[in-house]
Amino acid sequence: MSERTVRDGGATPRSNLRRDASRDPRHSGDGAIAPQRHDDPALLAVDDLHVEFDTYGGVVKAVRGVSFSVRAGKTLAIVGESGCGKSVTVQSIMGLIPMPPGRITSGTAMLDGIDVIQQKVVEGEDIRGSRIGMIFQDPMSSMNPTMTVGDQIAETLEVHRGYTRSQAAARAVELLGMTHIPEPAERAKQYPFAFSGGMLQRAIIAMAIACEPDILIADEPTTALDVTIQAQILDLLDELQATTGMAIILITHNLGVVARLADDVAVMYAGQIVEKGSSEELFHQCAHPYTLGLRAAMPGNDPTREQGLQAIEGTPPDMFDPPRGCSYFARCPHAMRLCEANLPERFEVTPHHYSSCWLQHPASPQEVPGLYRGAAA
Amino acid sequence: MFRYTVKRLIQGVITVWFIATATFIAMHSVPGDPLSGERLTNEEIRANLEARYGLDRPLFEQYLIYMGNMTRGDFGISFTQQNRRVNDIIREHFPVSATLGILAVVFAALGGILWGALTALFRNRLPDVVIMFLVILGISVPSFVVAGLSQLGLTSLNALFGVSILPVAGWGTLLHMIVPSLVLGLGTMAFLTRLMRSSMLEIINADFVRTARSKGLPPTRIFLKHQLRNAILPVITVLGPAIAAITTGGFVVELVFAIPGLGRYFVQAVQQLDYTVIMGTTVFYGAFLVFMVILVDLVYGFIDPRVRLE
């Protein structure tokens, strides 16, 4: 709290931005994998999160026991195909899923000793907006059409930091400048309809980081934008992380984005995390057949190779009645008899690199090309 | 914005001219005239009166004379109420109708927005079911029934307490205005409640409301600045026509509650073919409504920035 009080009292808020290049993940390691980095303490630790939705067809078990942690100043990417529960996971943490029909049946998300799933307001201040910021998929519909962009940014500062209207308005212009919006003073007075999609996403980022949160949750921030704008937004996130030292939780289904930004990756399938580890490990020592399938499905840009898109056969399981065993069983080319009825244990492939797949069991007989077998196997 | 306002005002003048012309033609197409009353015994008196009021001239000339007088703000003298100028009738009785109408519109708008937002927030739960049932009643029961029933209720209430809590009819004090304006605004309130409910349901889980929640804003602020302000837009759009319906439709309620409003003269004039009063009241109401619609559109521009540019 003391540190926050000091930050709140600053007359020139911009001077409080932490400029610490050594925290930039790209400056941290020399080799492909630097295990010592995993010893960073977890900033946000999510443990055994379960989320259900009541629908006319029955109860959908959207998230089934998800655990992960976010390290300060690092980027965690949560990847997976549509409907795997990645957005529901972060929206549950932020208290944004409509309840009913949604229901968080168990799980904790600890931020500085406080379970943010149970308690959103700490010492009179909502942690949303102040300690955790969030940006969304579709910028065009994510801003209030009847308020100026500047007012919407200023609003957060007035509520959380107790700024006066003029202070907040001045800071909003600075924030728009930080996200590289040209003529920020003019732009702040305009309404969202006067902005393009990419500009609006920048403004939303400015809004989310207004109170210098410790964590920025980006829920598919580039999905609704065209490719050149996508790259600009990713560069912006990267730059802001380097200047502010905030952690980022990046929800995406784009492995290219993951390779570019993420320090840690969690791969989700059917409401569960099937593999997690550092970005390098996931790409070079991939230890789960689903991750392997995702990587094979990535379109390449090598013109000499003539190959079609390699899709993963089949569809994700029915979440009304999730399978008893491994949820990937039906689509897995390497499935064994054991997989059908037995939920895979979580195997530690290398320190802090986990895979929930029976192939990692020491007694597993199969040799799968491309699949990394950990020390346990 | 200035150009837009001027453009709308010019359009308004054209509309009023059209209303006046159409009324003039329609009025003279009806068989008979103000002088076909019972007391005119012979042709000579009739011819004298026709000459006096200019009714013997060709219709087009009458039209030109009337329009000329109207643009100078003179609506002429009533045929049936001797020596009463139409301007005086409007000046004396319109403020009563306007007060009643404005109160009714305020009741309708506030009630509609409040009940609509409430039903949306409690969707499919008890408050929603109860209010929506009452809304159906409010829309389908005509105002003269509601007016009569409310008078019956008032007399029983006053009898129960032995003193007059609220007057049953008449005009004069604020207490006289409460029940008639509620009755007059009821149908519109019910209609606006339905509109507000559906527009609020669309907004309640909109993406930008989710954004507002993710900013950790207090629920009251989210409700007022993010949900209500956007949900209210369709309600404001229909408020112009609603004001029209209420002020012109006040005749029945004025009659039941014995309120000396303009509505009575408006209807009487049509029955008695009192040319100048028909023209005066119609053109005046028309101009009033056109002005209200323009006003509502201008206000709309202040609430929804997207409209301002056009």
Q: Report the order of strands and helices of chain B.
A: HHHHHHHHHHHHHH
Distance between the termini of chain B: 9 Å
Tell me, what's the shape of chain B?
Answer: flat
Helix content percent band of chain B: over 70%
Major beta sheet, strand line-up of chain A: 8-9-10-3-11-12-14-13
Count of individual helical segments of chain B? 14
Would you give the CATH topology of the domain at 2-45 and 73-80 and 125-269 in chain A?
Answer: Rossmann fold
Under CATH, the homologous superfamily of the domain at 92-275 in chain B reads MetI-like
Instruction: Please give the CATH class of the domain at 92-275 in chain B.
Output: Mainly Alpha
| Biggest sheet details of chain B | none
The end-to-end span of chain A amounts to 46 Å
The largest sheet of chain A, given as strand count, sense and whether it forms a barrel, is: 8 strands, mixed
The helix-and-strand class of chain B reads mainly alpha
Order of helices and strands of chain A: HEEEHEEEEHEHHHHEHEHEEHHEE
Which secondary-structure class do the elements of chain A indicate? alpha/beta
Provide structural commentary.
The complex is a heterodimer of chains A (377) and B (310). Chain A has 11 helices and 14 strands. With 377 residues, chain A is of the alpha/beta class. Chain A has a domain at 2-45 and 73-80 and 125-269: Rossmann fold (3-Layer(aba) Sandwich). Helix content of chain A is 27%, strand content 22%. Chain A is globular, with a radius of gyration of 21 Å. With 310 residues, chain B is an all-alpha fold. The mean pLDDT of chain B is 85. Classes of the chains: A alpha/beta (377), B mainly alpha (310). At the A-B interface, strand 7, helix 3, helix 4 and helix 7 of A face helix 8 and helix 9 of B.
